[in-house]
Amino acid sequence: MELTRDADLRPLNTFRVPARAAFLARVEETDDLRRCLALPQLRELPRLVLGGGSNILLRGDFQGLVLSICLRGMRVLGEDAEATYLRAAAGEPWHDLVGWSIALGHAGLENLSLIPGTVGAAPIQNIGAYGVELAERLHAVEALDLASGELRRLQPADCGLGYRTSAFKQGALSGHVVTAIEVRLPRQPRWVLDYPGVREALQAGADALDAARVSDAICGIRRRKLPDPVELPNAGSFFHNPVVATETLARLRAEHPELPAFRQADGRYKLSAAWLIERCGWKGQRRGDAGVYPGHALVLVNYGRATGAELWALAEAIRDAVAERFGLLLSPEPLVL
């Protein structure tokens, strides 16, 4: 296990903001986590688990232990009459798992193409895009309990999966580190194409589809709408889309009849945070090197030298503007430290 004191965290977060950690452990084997727990100087420190660093905003230094999860490996577990089962270690880039599954001839993850971050972060955030959530494909999660050192195999029902959240994020599993996941991919493809822009990008009927074509279309949409964090540092969508009751939607549409809303399974409605932000005039705005991406109002970007504190100040200003105009309080999607 590689352990570094006073470690630079700039390369480990996609906002590329300056920050340092008291200790950084590069975890390449599950036993590395247990070794960290056994070291007296590390045992009582605050802990931060980092995968690809694509869903975090560091407002300053972290006076604790950062666990950089670098576990690698993917394999086919088997199949039955209905599905094929794949396993991927937590440190694998998520899009690599999607591409590998498609190369093997399996459909199911194509709508989740090009999502940044690692496999281990996927169930924590219950990642989702273009009408599909990981919860629909997840078969099991392997996680280490940091308190006991026990390696557990969890069923999806154990994970408290919800809209961009889970029990790993806030709940009974917050003291666990994901080490691997298993996905269940149906043998009969079930294409999800009704999200705005997807059918238009495909320009073909469902009878001509395969997973690679859908993935390519999704990748094209994402590249047109969202900046590449390698070229323009960002953490993807910064705010959750608010979900509101029917009464709240009626109130808002009385003043804003053009407000887009999408009915959810529980009868509530998901609103577009990007629409709300854009109507408040923030799209393309900039404060120093902290800015709102001109191509998508939901994405905050670092134009070069922005600090985490400066990006957070911009986020707070946007949140206040939306609250004042619409009476809705946006919540950040990344973890803000």
Describe the protein's topology.
Blueprint: E1 2-8, E2 20-27, H1 30-38, H2 40-43, E3 47-50, E4 56-57, E5 62-69, E6 74-79, E7 83-89, H3 94-103, H4 121-125, E8 128-129, E9 132-133, E10 138-145, E11 151-154, E12 176-186, H5 198-202, H6 211-225, E13 234-237, E14 243-244, H7 246-255, E15 261-263, E16 269-271, H8 273-279, E17 286-287, E18 290-292, E19 299-302, H9 308-326, E20 335-336
Parallel strand pairs: 2-5, 3-5, 4-20
Antiparallel strand pairs: 1-2, 6-7, 7-12, 8-9, 10-11, 10-12, 13-19, 14-16, 15-16, 17-18, 18-19
What does this structure look like?
The chain has 337 residues and is of the alpha+beta class. The protein has three domains: 2-69, 2-Layer Sandwich (Uridine Diphospho-n-acetylenolpyruvylglucosamine Reductase, domain 2); 74-225, Uridine Diphospho-n-acetylenolpyruvylglucosamine Reductase, domain 3; 234-336, Uridine Diphospho-n-acetylenolpyruvylglucosamine Reductase, domain 1. It contains nine helices and 20 strands. The chain has helices at residues 30-38, 40-43, 94-103, 121-125, 198-202, 211-225, 246-255, 273-279, 308-326; strands at 2-8, 20-27, 47-50, 56-57, 62-69, 74-79, 83-89, 128-129, 132-133, 138-145, 151-154, 176-186, 234-237, 243-244, 261-263, 269-271, 286-287, 290-292, 299-302, 335-336. The strands form six sheets. Strands 6-7-12-10-11 form a five-stranded antiparallel beta sheet. The longest helix has 19 residues, at 308-326. It is globular, with a radius of gyration of 20 Å. The relative contact order is 0.13.
